[in-house]
Amino acid sequence: MKKFILLLMLGFAVGANAQQKKPITVTINTPSVQCDMCKNKIEDYLKYEEGVTKVVVNPKQKKTVVTYLTDRTNLNNIKTAIANVGYDAEEIKAAKDAYDKLPACCKKPSK
After folding, report:
1. Is residue 1 part of a domain?
2. Cα–Cα nearest to 42, from 79, 74, 84, 82
3. What is the pTM of this model?
């Protein structure tokens, strides 16, 4: 009986591991990122996004590298989260109300 219970527990443990997907890493163009304050805002916000495991924003290259779990979120959700902070994320434009609240240094230079 003890062997049966042990095998049953082992089966559940293996089954739970098999369902978890590996994280993937993507690079998102964030052309409206201007400075380190922008970097910190995006990184701090995405820390709390479900499924996101790592975020690195590079203001000089205007790119954001995100590692996430595909069974918890998707690329579109991450881009939308960046837009909700007030920054463009590839084809998804920044939310106007969030962009308006950004400090002057974080807004796009006027032409």
Report:
1. no
2. 82
3. 0.80
Above pLDDT 70, what percent of the chain?
81
Residue 64 lies in a domain: yes
| CATH number for position 91 | 3.30.70.100
Q: Which domain holds residue 38?
A: 21-106
Task: Report the phi/psi class of residue 44: left, alpha or beta, with left for phi > 0 and alpha for psi in -120 to 50.
Answer: alpha
CB-based contacts of 28: which residues, under 8 Å, 6+ apart? 63, 64, 65, 66, 75, 78, 79, 82, 89, 90
77 inside domain: yes
Can you tell me the distance from the alpha carbon of 66 to that of 45, in angstroms, rounded to the nearest whole number? Answer: 12
- Report if residue 62 sits inside a domain: yes
- Number of C-beta neighbours around residue 37 at 10 A: 14
**Average predicted confidence (pLDDT) for the chain:** 88
Compute the CA torsion angle 90, 81, 76, 15 (nearest 10 deg).
140
